[in-house]
Amino acid sequence: MGETSTDDFDRLVRDNQRAVYQIALSIVGSVAEAQDVVQDTFVRAHAKLDRLSDPRRFRAWVCQIARRVALNRLRSASRARKREETFAGEAVSVVDVEALAEERDYQRSVYAAIDRLPVKLREALLLCAIEGLEPSEVALMLGIPSGTVRSRLHSARRQLLERLSP
Predict the structure, then answer these.
(1) CATH of segment(s) 95-166
(2) In sequence order, what DSSP letters do the residues of 73-130 get, joined into one string?
(3) Global confidence as pTM
(4) CB-CB contact of 52 with 1 (8 Å)
(5) What is the largest CA-CA distance in the chain?
(6) Cβ pair 114, 13 in contact under 8 A
(7) How far apart are CA 50 and CA 31, in angstroms?
(8) Per-residue pLDDT, 149
(9) How confident is the model at residue 83 (pLDDT cuts 50, 70, 90)?
(10) How many angstroms from the chain centroid is the CA of residue 71?
């Protein structure tokens, strides 16, 4: 990418941080983990900036890095969780249902339904429906055809409706 000043890179981070965060969150499902993925992504991007041949493709490039970092983190967490369950058994969580408001219950069920979507569908939904990005932009970020993004978005919405219908 040639010489990139610290100010230029800071601008690129600011311009792309939200999209990178949404990709990370859609994969890892945890705000704290997603924030760690964002940080790791931009550290890696900065270290490999000289490998980017076309600066106009920075967003797509950094989003691909984020996706790989998040998937790796998810795999590592899954392996660690399996090891913990072997030693500790199943963890039990108690929720005081009476203390939760009806609106909060619905919000939780929506988030839970989104979390249960396959990663590919969740990515498309969060980037298009939540972030407001166009399918063509998301396609470029993920390196897939825009028709595939639209198909994933449609499938994600259909599955959410099925899961949230009484």
Answers:
(1) 1.10.10.10
(2) HHHHHHHHHHHHHHHH--------GGGS-HHHHHHHHHHHHHHHS-HHHHHHHIIIII
(3) 0.56
(4) yes
(5) 59
(6) no
(7) 30
(8) 93
(9) low
(10) 9
Average pLDDT, the chain: 80
Q: Scanning the structure block, which residue is given the tokens 């792309």?
A: 16
Residue ranges per structural domain of the chain: 1-92, 95-166
> Using an 8 Å Cβ cutoff, are 145 and 139 in contact?
yes
Handedness of CA 73, 79, 82, 88 (dihedral sign): negative
Cα dihedral sign, 142-115-126-122:
positive
Residues 58, 52 contacting (CB under 8 angstroms):
yes
**Which of the four pLDDT bands, split at 50, 70 and 90, describes residue 93?**
very low
**Over residues 1-26, mean pLDDT:** 82
Domain 1-92 has CATH 1.10.1740.10: yes
pLDDT over threshold 60, residue 94: no
Q: What is the pLDDT of residue 72?
A: 84
Residue 54 DSSP label: -
- The confidence score (pLDDT) of residue 5 equals 66
Query: 165: which 2 tokens?
Result: 């219908």
